[in-house]
Amino acid sequence: MQGIIAAIPTPVDSTGQPVEALFLEHARWALANGCDGLNVLGSTGEANSLDSQTRRRVMQWAARGLDTARLMVGTATPSLAETIALTTHADDLGYPVALVLPPYYYTPPSDDGLLRWYSELHAALGDRPIRVWFYNYPQMTGFAISEQVIADLHRIAPDRFDGIKDSSGDLDYCRRLAAAMPALRVFPSSETSLPQAGEAGFAGCISATVNHSAPLCARLLRGGPGAAELAEDIAELRAAISAQPLIPAVKHLVARRTGAADWTHTLPPFMPLSTAQIAALDHHVPVVSTVTA
């Protein structure tokens, strides 16, 4: 798994229940319009606002309706037992990769504590083939996963711990990981890193905003004339989307593309976008031409 991966949102109705048809339509659109893969039930998917039963249901929709070889799924909770159960379920459904946040309540954990937590997850999975990719998001968890923890786990179980999504925004952290562990797939969380991917050894990006910019990102990766201008356009799009509350903004743009009002719903603690925020998005974020109808 490499290239452009969208961290896809989860549509919910007015009661907060996920909507299967809308979820699958957008997932298929993303895969047909520049995305190499999808991250299901990550931060953009509001996974940590959903109970385990609902997460299992969404996992099943994706596994049943999409090519699981192109999917990864968020399975982390602060509970090791629940994380093991969700990751085991993902493996049963055929997901090749689980994206796993570190335990994010008793923070900051020691490096030894993190090693123990991820090692026990690995041991519980036994000979199951699902890989566990680190999800480094210190703005949300309150701490960064140390490079030493990643190196130790990658050394102990290289076929299990062979990837990371980094949402810290620290590209030097990503470069050091890629340089120290060439077999580790390193994905920054912004598509603005794509022009540097080859030189830095990044495997691609896993991003919320590629739910909108994927067609441009795909053209950028193909290279050729105009690549520099495309990179500027992509950076401007990301900045304009990120200037608003990110998850509601991404959902608004999907609602704008599809005309489906349920896409505008979010789960607490998110609030609906204001009239001014919607106007800013619609003014600064143009419709991107799709690859397919």
Automatic annotation (TrEMBL):
Protein name (Swiss-Prot/TrEMBL) = Dihydrodipicolinate synthase family protein
From which source organism is this entry? Antarcticimicrobium luteum
Recite the UniProt keywords alphabetically.
Lyase
Matches recorded under SMART domains: DHDPS
Query: What are the positions of the active site?
Result: 135 (proton donor/acceptor), 165 (schiff-base intermediate with substrate)
**Pfam families per UniProt:** DHDPS
Q: Which segments cross the bilayer?
A: none
Q: Which residues bind pyruvate?
A: 44, 206
- What's this protein's family per the entry? Belongs to the DapA family.
CDD domains for the chain: DHDPS-like
**InterPro entries per the record?**
Aldolase_TIM (IPR013785), DapA-like (IPR002220)
A GO MF term: 4-hydroxy-tetrahydrodipicolinate synthase activity
Looking at the record's lineage, which domain of life comes first? Answer: Bacteria
